[in-house]
Write a structure and sequence with these properties.
three-stranded antiparallel sheet; 3 strands; 2 helices; alpha+beta; 14% strand
Length: 96
């Protein structure tokens, strides 16, 4: 983690500890949650998730994926327990 690359909207970060294999795209400023001390449930809670990229094209696609996931969570009428996360497959992407 580097304060030079905070988890702001449309940045890409590694999820899980110690950094992978999953990644996520921030749809809001997540610096508080994924920055130093933001993951208190981990053994090394003072560490932070690394932010390694930025979505430069395709913001509308990211927003659409986010709306889909929000609409899916809690569809049964029950509160989200944090375990059942909707999966959106990324079929194609280009890393520059």
């Amino acid at each position: 983690y580097s304060e030079d690359y905070p988890h702001v909207k449309y940045t890409i970060g590694f999820g899980g500890r110690p950094g992978g294999p999953d990644f996520y795209i921030s749809t809001q400023d997540n610096s508080r949650y994924h920055g130093p001390g933001g993951q208190g449930h981990h053994d090394l809670h003072e560490e932070a998730d690394p932010c390694f990229g930025l979505v430069v094209v395709g913001h509308k696609v990211v927003d659409r994926m986010h709306r889909r996931s929000v609409a899916t969570v809690g569809k049964s009428g029950e509160a989200w327990d944090g375990k059942d996360v909707p999966i959106t497959s990324i079929v194609s992407m280009q890393v520059l």
